[in-house]
Write a structure and sequence with these properties.
By secondary structure, the protein is an alpha/beta fold. 35% of the residues lie in helices and 21% in strands. It folds into 3 domains: 4-157, Rossmann fold (3-Layer(aba) Sandwich), CATH 3.40.50.12160; 178-405, tm_1862 like domain (pyruvate-formate lyase- activating enzyme); 411-467, Nucleic acid-binding proteins (OB fold (Dihydrolipoamide Acetyltransferase, E2P)), CATH 2.40.50. The protein has 14 helices and 19 strands. It has a 6-stranded parallel sheet with strand order 2-1-3-4-5-6, with helices on both faces. A hairpin with a 4-residue loop joins strand 16 and strand 17 (436-440). The protein starts with 9 loop residues before the first helix and ends with a strand. It binds S-adenosyl-L-homocysteine, iron/sulfur cluster and FE3-S4 cluster (F3S). Residues 187, 189-191, 194, 196-197, 231-232, 268 line the site of iron/sulfur cluster. FE3-S4 cluster (F3S) is lined by residues 40-41, 43-44, 77-79, 110-111, 195-196, 199-200.
């Protein structure tokens, strides 16, 4: 099944090991710490766990206090303008750390510096940044740190022409019960609004054996929630020899023992086959939640977005999932104000939201991305975008509230996520349908499955009482 062109060579990885040894030598007995700020999606969260893994290997402890750190990294996102502005403002505030201590190392990675104009901007206007590199260069982090510690030339690298997968990088997982497992990288879809294919390269899949070993290892260590990550997990395996499918992978994962749930993030409706839905329906680890990005309810806009499905196809997938997986919950992504979206187009989106009745939606105001086809199309005025966004949110809030209230009086199984941010005595948890449930409890059950009787609900969460077994 191996396609060797997909993978970073062992000699390149060995070279990076040498750089790691070099850094450890320089950092010996220094008691250094590193701070990593993560923006963007789960792919970036997963990459940051690899970054922390490497940083620890070369002698840094991980700190949450940026002002104390000896090495600072920002793992950036470029999906919308707001994400890039945030990244630049965080990088901006690192300036005075370097002014105070010139030995500090500052690096930028992720999706933003994979774009030539941003890389150039960082090089020119952020002179205290030591290195910036695109997502496919992550395995070369030791080389960049080693260079910076030796006061070498500043490095600004875009993604490689043909990005490859680096297996075996150490991962420092944030959680002891929830894990990301990347099954593929990149995207081939080129939705006309989206920057991802330009900053994450073409699709490449990990070998099934590597993924299964990782899931098995997590199950053995008692992980309870495993998310299989990729921009379009439904097209997993197309680039591998033997062409294993996502259904094959799910069927193999189903054989692994352990009390854990599996989520997919994200599925593209274009490739949602019946074979995959059957593999989900028969999977003993399946969580009853499906995220299926819709983007728009108008066939005209879906075509302009290059999504390769229409409204009817989307609805038929929802129906098939609902009939084969009883009680499945649905979430989606919707963009409002895509170029050329008329009031009629928008009303079609509102209609589909009413008919599907998603549990919740992630709605986004269209943000023009330089280098994508939609950037040059005629734009919808900002005030219309905002007005439509508000109407969509109001509609969804009503629906979410109604759906959530149907849970009152029921008992649900939840995975406990830890103390709620706002209230010391309240715990936050999620059902296997990914609904947030808050409950009060004297004991800390974080990382375990518990039963909660729902007593109240609102738009964003359920509230209840834990049913303790002893
Ligand atoms: N690969 C995933 C999406 C990743 S990006 C998929 O295809 O489903 C997450 C979401 O960001 C997208 O689903 C889309 O709704 C939104 N998005 C992407 N580009 C955007 C842009 N230029 N402006 C606004 N929202 C955007
Ligand atoms: Fe972007 Fe489309 Fe690829 Fe998702 S499938 S990452 S929206 S290009
Ligand atoms: Fe952002 Fe890159 Fe993810 S652009 S949404 S971090 S793939």
């Amino acid at each position: 099944m191996e396609n060797t062109n997909n993978f970073v060579s062992s000699s390149e990885l060995a070279l990076q090991e040498q750089f790691k040894r070099g850094i450890r030598e320089i950092n010996k007995n220094k008691n250094l710490s590193a701070f990593v700020f993560t923006l963007g999606c789960q792919q970036n969260e997963a990459d940051s766990e690899r970054i922390r893994g490497v940083l620890r290997e070369v002698g840094y402890s991980i700190t949450e206090k940026e002002e104390e750190a000896d090495l600072l990294m920002v793992n950036t996102c470029a999906i919308r303008e707001h994400a890039e502005r945030r990244a630049l403002s965080i990088i901006g505030r690192f300036k005075h750390y370097k002014a105070k201590n010139p030995d500090i190392v500052i690096g930028v990675c992720g999706c933003m510096p994979a774009q030539a104009h941003r890389s150039e901007q960082l090089k020119r206007s952020y002179h205290y940044v030591d290195f910036a590199f695109g997502t496919s260069m992550l395995h070369r982090l030791p080389e960049f740190i080693f260079g910076a510690l030796n006061k070498g030339k500043r490095r600004f690298l875009l993604d490689s022409e043909k990005p490859q997968i680096a297996e075996g990088l150490k991962i420092e997982r944030e959680s002891t019960y929830k894990a990301w497992v990347s099954i593929m990288y990149g995207c081939n879809n080129f939705c006309t609004y989206c920057i991802v294919p330009y900053v994450r390269g073409r699709e490449r899949s990990r070998n099934m054996a590597e993924i299964l070993a990782e899931v098995q290892g997590l199950a053995d260590r008692g992980y309870r929630d495993i998310t299989l990550l990729g921009q379009n997990v439904n097209s997993y395996g197309k680039d591998l020899e033997g062409k294993p499918t996502i259904a094959d992978l799910l069927n193999e994962i189903s054989k692994i023992d352990g009390d854990f749930m599996i989520h997919l993030m994200t599925s593209h409706p274009r490739d949602a086959s019946s074979e995959m839905i059957d593999a989900l329906a028969s999977n003993r680890h399946l969580a009853y939640h499906f995220h299926l990005p819709l983007q728009s309810g108008s066939d005209k806009i879906l075509k302009k977005m290059n999504r390769h499905y229409d409204k009817a196809r989307y609805l038929s997938i929802v129906e098939e999932l609902r009939s084969k997986i009883k009680g499945v919950t649905f979430t989606t992504d919707i963009i409002v104000g895509f170029p050329g979206e008329t009031e009629e187009d928008f009303l079609e989106t509102m209609d589909i939201v009413k008919s599907v009745r998603f549990d919740s939606i992630f709605s986004f105001i269209y943000s023009p991305r330089k280098g994508t086809p939609a950037y040059d199309m005629e734009q919808v005025p900002d005030e219309i975008k905002h007005e439509r966004y508000d109407r969509l949110c109001n509609l969804q809030n009503e629906i979410s509230n109604e759906i959530n209230n149907t849970y009152v009086g029921k008992t649900v199984r939840v995975l406990v996520d830890g103390k709620s941010k706002n209230n010391e005595n309240v715990y936050s948890s999620r059902t296997d349908g990914n609904k947030i449930v808050h409950f009060e409890c004297a004991r800390d059950y974080t990382g375990t499955f518990q039963n909660v009787k729902i007593t109240r609900a609102d738009t964003f969460a359920l509230y209840g009482e834990i049913i303790e077994n002893n």
